[in-house]
Design a protein that fits this description.
five-stranded antiparallel β-sheet, 39% helix, elongated
């Protein structure tokens, strides 16, 4: 089930959109102003954002810019009463996937949500290699190659886990988000220790000291993140 984050300050419009999305079978998160919206955009787990342009505290363009820096693969549809070409172009250039001008019909909005989710299931495209200091991940060969010449195979799930961390730099990813996005299951359907065990195995394979990891970092109370590395 896809989760949609709705950031819209007009309470009547937000309620109508949220109700329509829930009726259509989506999980929905919502925020009514820019500061709360930005915080949710950076911390919450969701598959698509519906983002109003004119908001208190932070406008939609500022939120979109921050999101694209931190989470470049997340689809965004902008909502605005502004129909000017310059605003639409600005939103699209900043990385919006679509732009809907108010007033809009619920049927049109749902169709656009479905279309964006369909054509953007995973973005950005996977990287081919990842350098981590004393070795390299070769995703095409599904293996680790070390500077001393040793090689270690990766499972498909291990490779997917690294790819997801690569695609979300400078952000701690929760166990629940990894289960939803990498395992494609809801956290209540499995034990989150699954993530801990996979990360422990990966650290062992990557020669990352479990007592003081320098590659796969644990952020206490938040989850996991990948140390700054180079990709190609």
């Amino acid at each position: 089930m896809n989760t949609i984050l709705v950031i819209e300050d007009d309470s009547a419009i937000r309620r109508g959109v949220v109700d329509a999305l829930r009726f259509a079978g989506y999980e929905v998160l919502e925020a009514g102003e820019g500061k709360a919206g930005l915080e949710m955009a950076q911390r919450a787990t969701f598959d698509l954002m519906l983002l109003d342009v004119v908001l208190p505290n932070y406008n939609g363009f500022e939120i979109l810019t921050a999101l694209r820096t931190q989470r470049p693969g997340t689809p965004v549809i902008m909502l605005s009463a502004r129909g000017e070409e310059a605003d639409r172009v600005r939103g699209l250039k900043l990385g919006a996937d679509d732009y809907v001008v108010k007033p809009f019909s619920v049927r049109e909005l749902l169709a656009r949500v479905e279309a964006v989710l369909r054509r953007n299931p995973e973005r950005p495209p996977p990287v081919k290699t990842l350098d981590f200091g004393h070795g390299k991940v070769d995703f095409s060969r599904m293996e680790l190659r070390f500077i001393d010449g040793a090689r270690t195979e990766l499972s498909e799930r291990e490779a997917q886990l690294i790819q997801y961390l690569v695609a979300n730099p400078d952000r701690a990813i929760s166990r629940e988000e990894l289960l939803r996005r990498v395992w494609r299951i809801e956290p209540q359907h499995t034990e989150t220790r699954t993530i801990d065990m996979h990360l422990a195995n990966l650290r062992s394979k990557m020669r990352d000291d479990a007592s003081a990891p320098r590659i796969l970092i644990t952020v206490r109370g938040k989850g996991y993140m990948l140390a700054r590395t180079s990709t190609a």
